[in-house]
Fold:
Amino acid sequence: METVRKTAERIRAIKIQGATNIAIAGLKAIRHIDEKDLDKAVRILSRARPNEPLLFNGLNFVKSASVKMSIKDAVDEFISMIKEAKRKAVINCASKIPDKSSIMTHCHSSLVVESIIEAKRIGKKPNVIVTETRPLYQGRITAKELASEGIPVKFIIDSAAMEFMAEVDFFLMGGDVITANNCIMNKIGTAMMAKIAHDYGKKVGAVVELLKIDASKSKRDIKIEQRKASEVWRNAPKKIKIMNPAFDLTPAKFIDFVSTELGNLNAYTLFAVAEKKYPWLTEARKWY
Structure:
């Protein structure tokens, strides 16, 4: 159980970040656990961060599948599903990136980064504007990874997004959650930037696996994780209330396409397509 507890703490502290990385790390933590400890391990991991349905869906898959296969085999099967879904989504997204296009992105999404790198691999020449993504500066991870692949990068402060939007061809976002009414949850600030891009007449794309569907929640009833005030302002005056939401929700009306493992989809169709492909994801299930 020590591995489970340490993994949950690393997820909570954002030492492991990005929905796909969180899910794989959480599942690997229970790979060799005794069956009698599975319920406790699932509770610990699922409470690490409240807005990570890919991890929750994986944990539920393992619990359900463990009646007919070993925990190890169930974990390996779901991780394989994640990796294959990610691979296909990246290929589909790269196909939507025009040659010599300028892209703006926010925060760090492994799918966004790999899609842009894949576009370069197949002969396209993208350049990218990356936002710093306060308060934890995850944009720095994105900028480093893209620059290390020889992709031209500009790094800007978050509040300059509107100033630089005129330079780009489209805004590309990742996603941690797909809600039942086809909103995509991503790092706080994403919805604002998607709205700015939409108002500027720029394309808005997302790349996300349908395995991140959360059939139990819609935009109206989803609870956004609130992070520690100290991430924003250490030793702030006591009379000041610090608000630090981790995510926001971008509605389908601001998204032109969503690259998934099943192709490049209209955002309004996400839930219906996921329900058909993965009926077990959208059936009633226990949340921990």
Q: What stands out?
A: The chain is about 40% helix and 15% strand. Residues 2-85 form a domain with the Four Helix Bundle (Hemerythrin (Met), subunit A) fold (CATH 1.20.120.420). The first helix runs from residue 2 to 12.
